[in-house]
Structure to design on (1333 residues):
């Protein structure tokens, strides 16, 4: 297997972490920060543009361009904010956690470079509430940096989430950070102009921000040489599911799915066959074994009918019923829907109900048509991408595994006869006072 | 340390004190045995000069604020796709059996609450089980009796 | 003249000002884009319901029209010309109806329901939903006034946005998330806010309904009579819904300058007092055996003889809520017919503020609002409180100088504050002088009925600044109109006679006023015009049943100086006052028209210079400013007693008080508890905690009340509602019971 460069995780070996600031500095840490601080903010942004770095959270928006949308302080004399989205909750994605645990200084250094680029004195890191250990590591690392006088007058606030996937959507995150319910806003206005506290704000993902550090270490142009056109640099792929060696793997964009799953991931367990791959987190369309040679980069995956999303690669083998998969995924969106807009609030639940009916063997042909119609009626009508994600996922399962869905209808039962790997899997149990019912089983 | 004094410190962290409502609820919950009773919510409201209703609208939005009493040990098993494929349902059933409580409930003696939850961001180390918000990785059904014994002994 | 932008809506081209929203632009083109959550009065649009989806050329995804403003040459297609938009809107309705119960036959909203209307126009003809709908216990009481049906709720969030972003009471909230979201209050606490009833009008379905109106009528059974509320001096424009000759509810009639479509709960829900059990419908005379019912002719005879016997030594005590015509007619009878010129109002009024007129909507545009006075604005003129909140949301600085305000000042200090601000020494004074759009508000007793405020406004040069204005918030609804009506009814001195042979008490507010009762004790004979038995039963010699605003034609001048028209919504159970005053006046050779229109014509000729009732229109306009006329100097200074170590008692009249409110059981929960408000420090030093039973003592009397710690209250001051304050003196002590 070829040796792939470690860019994000540079400075660590064999899954180790660098948690000691002296060790980090000795290995060359904060070089990039000093270099960036000596540059004008516009030059910082230009360096990012040259790198071709695009958001690693899922939207893949060019990072330099995003920062350039933030007006200069003299254009808009309000405090400027950098908000880091550490609310990683996309099923199949677990890379930001490992980044924060293993290379916290690299990440925090990137925060400070970014703050300099958008001329911000104020950084907020919104970290999901479930990442308690990661919060502690960041807190301690931040304290070490504060004592070492590295913050340069920038205030960094660690804000903990409390369990809501929707708060990973940038405007919902801002609402949550402001102390309101985490419901997305309409755009315009865009966060760059009126974001946190109605002030100019850039919202970036953890991996994106961490990558800023090596961009300044090696220079933007050098970074752009990695990966492929349209998808420069390396990516931390989260590999999970029915695969022998799941884990986070930092690889250049453009690597093939075959190499990732088989050469690096060890392939599916013995005796089983690859059935499906979700390439970019549960919000992306499923691909089949026939797509195994697709390159993992933005353009190739779009051409294949899916998306790179959060690079959360879920491998599914032939023991899994695709209707059950649909139910579990749809339940996720139903549970996480914020409830603000009608099609998502109502549609995600309805889709789940129809899928359950089909799985229970009570589905008719009309129900299959209804399922597709309801997904179409959600698609493109919602306030934010959450509703669309449910529709995209389910529509792709039906599209790629039509015969399996049809079999449920024709047979009047699930053809896996209780042997599917997801058989009986429970939806989230609700502990809030309002719920009197038990969690649903698939 | 009182909730009120802790909240005053939290307010100072943010340009707008309303932002302190989430950490304030976290603090009040921790001080109230792991859940937010109506009085705990009133205390937060009072400390932030908000209405209890407003604080309730925030607390009830998120999964990690508990509006009902919670067991001393809170066990949460992820049942999302990757953990599901790795046998999460069997892990859940093992916990149900060992703890004598069904998912979504608290044991009679108030010792354990068992729940199933959405993706904890540990898919590569499935199945992930959170015990009082600290994650145990690669949990399989056969590991459960040992875990429960450990938790009971703690 | 703002820049115009040209857009096309469904192939119709229109030009609208830059910044116009798409829904409004479509309206200009004569096209209605359907909406649920969109309501500009609630703040920026949220784009939640997805009802207003339209197709915009060049944008692949459907857009929520309410969230966008026009761009040059934008091409917009609504469901009328875009199949995609039509599908989108049908999808929204299908989703809304998935859980919506088929309650129309039993739902109050049926027939005036936007969901029904839009489903007919844009919705699916059939349901495809075969699963069990989400059910709830229903209806549940959000308060004694409002019922909530969570099954009908479409989660448009209008109600929660009103609670949070308009009334800012933070009581009605959304609980949980996703499909489990529900509208709720905290625990089982009622939605207690002076403005709660507005959510009933805002709700586009039958989820929030009025308990008072429940099952009362169908929209095709009713008529709406446009009139004006006189519960306070704002004069909100209302529609009285009538069925079979009874008022069944009050709705807003949205005057954009006065009330913006909001009503307070007192104005909205006190109408049942028209049918109170103890309402008097026949005249009563005190005889040897107590009060006996007499016929109207006999009553007028009795009144005539009492008036004649009094020989001009008559005082008329007004409530201040009479129509201007009523006051004028009474004035003609008494002043012209009997040479009795003395009249009293509960509070002084001053015409000097007419130089600084501003519509109430001008408050929302202000950069600086300064409120002076002892009483919270919301207790005196609730809607003004909403205007001030809107100003603050728009970035205005709001300074409140009162015992509970942002600047804590002692009760009675208002006049001194005005003088200080006029001197221009303080930072605030300088800001006031420099501002182009500043508003002064006097909210409380004293101050010469706005005179001191007018002096300040004059000193600040407000007369030359159209964005600046000053308001006095009187305790009654039409004191200026009453004073003016009385004033033009005669000429001559108006001092109180000694002794008072006859006291004529007009209206329930006057009948329950302690000062009027004191006058009644001095007077030889008393005639009371009242609606309710218990108010005057003990001390009146002759009681004539009175009508109330909903039963009257006439005009009323609100606190802006705007003259607005009342229309009779229902017939009173007794003759209209103008009718019998006219008859009575004739006996004294005074000719007064028996109908409001005729009286108005006479009054208008004197006061309003050829304004006709028709000119007032559906939404009356605010007359132009008058030239400033300096008010008379204060005759008695406002009392600013210094407390000698004790606590200073501030009595106040809560919004939810008075004979009308007392007779509506459902309003009971809004009434003040038997409370005494204490400042934090005063409570602490006395070992009193919030909710403790306490005894409030003054020289010779004491009252048992419950302590309420008010963090915003000035130390040294305690507040007790008038109705609970008994005979307490201005200086009190408070101890734990």
């Amino acid at each position: 297997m070829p040796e792939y460069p470690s860019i994000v995780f540079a400075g660590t070996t064999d899954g180790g972490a660098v948690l000691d600031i002296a060790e980090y500095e000795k290995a060359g840490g904060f070089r990039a920060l000093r270099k960036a601080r000596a540059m004008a903010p516009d030059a910082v942004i230009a360096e990012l543009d040259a790198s071709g770095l695009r958001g690693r959270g899922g939207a893949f928006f060019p990072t330099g361009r995003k920062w350039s949308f933030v007006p200069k302080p003299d254009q808009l004399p309000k405090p400027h904010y950098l908000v880091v989205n550490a609310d990683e909750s996309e099923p199949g994605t677990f890379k930001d956690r490992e980044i924060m645990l293993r290379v916290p200084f690299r990440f925090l250094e990137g925060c400070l470079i970014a703050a300099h680029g958008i001329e911000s004195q104020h950084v907020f890191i919104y970290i999901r509430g479930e990442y308690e250990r990661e919060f502690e590591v960041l807190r301690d690392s931040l304290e070490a940096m504060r004592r070492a006088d590295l913050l340069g007058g920038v205030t960094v606030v660690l804000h903990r989430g409390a369990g809501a996937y929707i708060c990973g959507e940038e405007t919902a995150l801002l609402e949550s950070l402001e102390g309101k319910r985490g419901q997305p806003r309409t755009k315009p206005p865009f966060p760059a102009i009126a974001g946190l506290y109605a002030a100019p704000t850039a919202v970036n993902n953890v991996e994106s921000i961490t990558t800023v550090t090596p961009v300044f270490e090696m220079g933007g142009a050098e970074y752009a040489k990695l990966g492929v056109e349209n998808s420069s640099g390396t990516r931390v792929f989260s590999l999970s599911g029915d695969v022998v060696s799941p884990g986070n793997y930092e690889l250049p964009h453009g690597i093939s799915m075959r190499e990732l799953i088989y050469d690096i991931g060890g392939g599916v367990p013995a005796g089983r066959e690859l059935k499906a791959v979700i390439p970019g987190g549960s919000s992306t369309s499923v691909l089949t074994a026939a797509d195994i040679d697709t390159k993992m980069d933005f353009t190739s995956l779009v051409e294949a009918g899916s998306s790179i999303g959060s690079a959360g690669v879920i491998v599914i083998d032939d023991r899994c019923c695709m209707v059950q998969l649909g139910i579990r995924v749809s339940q996720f969106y139903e549970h996480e829907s914020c409830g603000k807009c009608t099609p998502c609030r109502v549609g995600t639940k309805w889709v789940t109900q129809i899928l359950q009916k089909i799985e229970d063997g009570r589905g008719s042909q009309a129900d299959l048509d209804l399922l597709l119609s309801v997904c179409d009626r959600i698609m493109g009508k919602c306030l934010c991408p959450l509703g669309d994600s449910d529709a995209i996922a389910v529509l792709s399962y039906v599209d790629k595994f039509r015969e399996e869905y049809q079999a449920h209808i024709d047979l009047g039962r699930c053809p896996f006869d209780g042997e599917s790997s997801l058989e009986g899997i429970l939806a989230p149990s609700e502990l809030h006072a309002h719920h009197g019912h038990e969690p649903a089983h698939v | 340390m009182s909730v009120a004094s802790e909240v005053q410190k939290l307010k100072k962290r943010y340009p707008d004190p309303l932002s302190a409502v989430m950490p304030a609820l976290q603090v009040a919950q921790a001080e109230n045995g792991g859940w937010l009773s109506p009085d705990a919510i009133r205390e937060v409201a009072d400390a932030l000069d908000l209405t209890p209703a407003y604080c309730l609208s925030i607390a009830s939005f998120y999964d990690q604020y508990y509006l009902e009493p919670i067991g001393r040990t809170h066990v949460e098993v992820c049942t999302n796709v990757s953990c599901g494929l790795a046998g999460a349902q069997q892990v859940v059933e093992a916990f149900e059996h060992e703890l004598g409580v069904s998912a979504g409930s608290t044991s009679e003696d108030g010792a354990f609450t068992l729940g199933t939850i959405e993706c904890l961001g540990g898919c590569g180390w499935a199945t992930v089980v959170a015990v009082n918000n600290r994650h145990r990785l690669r949990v399989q059904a056969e590991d459960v009796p040992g875990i429960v014994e450990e938790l009971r002994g703690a | 003249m703002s820049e115009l932008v040209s857009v096309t809506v469904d192939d119709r081209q229109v030009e609208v000002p830059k910044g116009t929203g798409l829904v409004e632009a479509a309206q200009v083109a004569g096209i209605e884009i359907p909406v649920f959550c969109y309501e500009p009065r609630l703040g920026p649009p949220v784009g939640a319901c997805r009802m207003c989806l339209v197709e915009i050329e060049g944008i692949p995804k459907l857009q929520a029209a309410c969230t966008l403003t026009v761009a040059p040459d934008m091409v917009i297609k609504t469901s009328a010309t875009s199949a995609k938009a039509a599908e989108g809107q049908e999808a929204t309705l299908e989703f809304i109806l998935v859980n919506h119960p088929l309650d129309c036959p039993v739902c109050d909203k049926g027939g005036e329901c936007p969901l029904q209307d839009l489903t007919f126009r844009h919705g699916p003809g059939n349901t495809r939903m075969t699963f069990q709908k989400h059910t709830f216990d229903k209806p549940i009481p959000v308060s004694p006034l409002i019922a909530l049906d969570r099954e009908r709720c479409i989660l448009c969030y209008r109600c929660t946005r009103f609670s949070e972003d308009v009334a800012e009471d933070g009581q009605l909230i959304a609980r949980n998330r996703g499909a489990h979201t529900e509208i709720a209050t905290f625990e089982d606490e009622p939605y207690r806010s002076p403005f709660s009833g507005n959510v009933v009008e805002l709700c586009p379905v039958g989820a929030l309904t009025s308990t008072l109106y429940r099952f009362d009528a169908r929209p095709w059974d009713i008529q709406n009579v446009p009139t004006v509320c006189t519960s306070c001096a704002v004069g909100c424009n209302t529609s009285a819904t009538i069925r079979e000759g009874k008022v069944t509810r009050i709705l807003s009639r949205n005057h954009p300058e006065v009330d913006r479509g909001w009503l307070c709960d007192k104005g909205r829900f006190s109408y049942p007092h028209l049918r109170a059990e103890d309402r008097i419908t026949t005249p009563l005379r005190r005889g040897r055996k107590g009060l006996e019912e007499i016929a109207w002719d006999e009553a007028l005879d009795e009144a005539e003889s009492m008036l004649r016997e009094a020989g001009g030594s008559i005082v008329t005590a007004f409530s201040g809520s009479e129509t201007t015509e009523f006051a004028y007619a009474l004035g003609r009878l008494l002043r012209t017919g009997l040479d009795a010129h003395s009249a009293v109002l509960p509070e002084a009024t001053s015409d000097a503020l007419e130089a600084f007129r501003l519509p109430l909507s001008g408050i929302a545009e202000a950069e600086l609002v300064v409120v002076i006075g002892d009483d919270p604005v919301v207790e005196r003129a609730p809607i003004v409180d909403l205007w001030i909140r809107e100003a603050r949301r728009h970035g205005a600085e709001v300074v409140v100088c009162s015992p509970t305000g942002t600047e804590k000042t002692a009760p009675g200090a208002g006049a001194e504050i005005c003088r200080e601000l006029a001197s221009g020494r303080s930072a605030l004074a300088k800001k006031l002088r420099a501002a182009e759009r500043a508003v002064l508000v006097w909210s409380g007793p004293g101050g010469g009925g706005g005179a001191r405020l007018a002096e300040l406004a004059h000193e600040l040069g407000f007369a030359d600044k159209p964005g600046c204005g000053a308001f006095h918030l009187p305790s009654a609804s039409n004191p200026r109109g009453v004073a003016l009506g009385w004033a033009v009814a005669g000429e001559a001195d108006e001092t109180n006679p000694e002794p008072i042979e006859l006291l004529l008490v007009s209206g329930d507010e006057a009948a329950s006023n302690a000062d009027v009762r004191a006058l009644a004790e001095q007077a030889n004979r008393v005639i009371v015009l009242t609606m309710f038995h218990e108010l005057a039963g003990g001390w009146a010699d002759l009681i004539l049943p009175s009508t109330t605003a909903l039963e009257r034609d006439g005009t009323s001048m609100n606190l802006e100086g705007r003259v607005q028209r009342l229309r009779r919504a229902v017939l009173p159970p007794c003759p209209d006052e103008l009718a019998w005053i006219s008859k009575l006046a004739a006996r004294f050779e005074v000719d007064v028209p028996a109908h409001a229109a005729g009286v108005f014509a006479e009054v208008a000729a004197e006061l309003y210079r050829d304004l006709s009732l028709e000119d007032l229109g559906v939404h009356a306009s605010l007359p132009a400013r008058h030239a400033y006329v300096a008010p008379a100097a204060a005759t008695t200074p406002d009392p600013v007693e210094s407390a000698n170590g004790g606590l200073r008692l501030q009595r106040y009249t809560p919004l939810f008080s008075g004979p009308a409110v007392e007779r509506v059981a459902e309003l009971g929960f809004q009434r003040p508890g038997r409370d005494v408000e204490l400042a934090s420090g005063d409570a602490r030093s006395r070992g009193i905690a919030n909710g403790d039973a306490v005894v409030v003592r003054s020289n010779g009397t004491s009252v048992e009340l419950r302590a309420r710690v008010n963090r915003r209250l000035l130390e040294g001051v305690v507040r007790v509602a008038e109705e609970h304050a008994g005979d307490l003196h201005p200086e009190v002590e408070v101890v734990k019971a």
